[in-house]
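Researcher: For the record, we're logging two predictions in this thread. I'll number them. Prediction 1 follows.
Model: Prediction 1, sequence and structure:
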Amino acid sequence: MRFRPILLACALVLVAACHHEPLMNAGSKVTTGGTIAGNVTTEDQRVPLAGRKVTAVDVSTGAKFDATTGASGGYTIQVPKGRYRLEVELQRAEAIAKHPDEVTVTNSDLDPHRDFVVTVRR
């Protein structure tokens, strides 16, 4: 079956427009490895924190890979093989109530449920 280039381009645009979760930083190229995923919420886990920068830091090299949480508070970051520490951007008067442990990623790994819980300090 032959696709016309314009139809293929339109299909790609529609797929990208319908994607509701954030993707990794477009400036980062990952050729092999896996995906780290999770959510950022408040202590009331029904309240997602959208627009938060989540960073995966390779503990050996210091290389950083980041994503921004979507409307659901979810994030996904594609990373090369390695061991990663995860960080989340906090706003004034916020603290981390729950922080995911370091994670080791190998080829084709999907490490889900790397969740953060954020609380407001009083």
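Researcher: Logged. Prediction 2.
Model: Prediction 2, sequence and structure:
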Amino acid sequence: MPYILEVLRFDPKGHIEHPAWYGKAEHIGYMNKIFNTKQEASNYYHQFNEHLRPITKESNWHSDWDPNNFLMYVIRNYCGYEYKKLPPLE
């Protein structure tokens, strides 16, 4: 099964203005790159985000949010209907 990276933006102050947003993130889009395995997607993410913990099975295949740009990544099954509008990290 192929995989893609979903990109989300976390608002660290969102829960102050909107308590219902606590722990939530906004969907930005899907990256235009397809991976053969979850581990391949994880390795790709970590190559460009070495300052953050790797995405692992233990993290439920999602990253921490980056304190520099507030983005976080989730490895998702690629079903073929997602609009992959975001450019790859390279």
